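for the record, two folds in this file. i put them one after another cuz i was lazy. first one right below, seq on top, structure tokens after. the second one comes after a little note so u can tell where it starts
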Amino acid sequence: MIPPPPGPTLPEELLLLAMDPQRGRPYCGKRFLDYAMAGAVLAELELQGRITEQRERVQVVNPLEPPDQLPATLMRGLPAPGKGGRGAGASAGGWVRHAGRQVGAMYLDALVKRGILRRETRRFLGLLPCLRHPVVAKDLAAQARHRYAVAEQAGFPDHRGRVLAALVPAADLARFVGATGSPDRTATRRLIHEQWTARAVYRNVRQDKSNQAGGGSR
């Protein structure tokens, strides 16, 4: 008997939830999605028992690389086991900020190559190139939304579901992804607080919003 193909990883599932299938653009700001994708990679590696977090710092505990090429490549950018003393490891928030753009681009490329997304280049105002990624495999996107809705209705009973549920509002996606469209702010704050990966994403999103409000950039 041939085993069924593996389901989407956390970063893939998040990307399918975040993309507007018709417009081919994320529902949230692109940079916010980059942060969330980086957080999802860390969460996936933690679920596989390859990294651990203490006091908002990340370190590899199992150096055996995962079979999936993308998280394997990204894991190489994290401190190896036993490196450094007190305060060893990478800052979770710092890694999310600096790796986010690379992570987002890598997963977009991967889903385009697999025929799940389609890449289109258009000109903004006839001058600047603008990339769009409409969803081709609409059944996969619909399945991702259905799984999320079912888990949401059940109160996100498993750890993987709670991690995904925390990353969604951390990236400002809750009103587009949730079944109700009007998320309970107290509940979403609690979810974010529970998950260190979501906290790292949320802090970067909040920092960017603060920079924009103050006219600064980073």
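(here's the note) second protein begins now
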Amino acid sequence: MTTLEQASTPNPNGFREIDVQRLAASRGTTRLIDVREPSEYNAELGHIAGTELVPLATVEHVAKAWDRNQEIVVVCRSGGRSGRAAAALAAMGFKHIINMSGGMLAWNAAGLPVER
């Protein structure tokens, strides 16, 4: 189990949940996928440095090329879309999927750094 997995909690939909403070403290080189729309990525809430923009509607198609054993944290505005993406990835056989609870709203509320 990875550090982020240890810092996260199980979700009944086959993935794990992590809060923004634990993610910020333990991130390391974990792959971060932002499933918001391109118009949201550089907007008011910004994005976490190093995230890859993969809009929710494209996740299942794009993810076909990803390593299913890689640790992936999924992010969106509030946690809803990323939760749906995390469930879809878990259903595709990804083993280490973590949803960032509260999304970018929580990240910004915690005063954590963003890029725009």
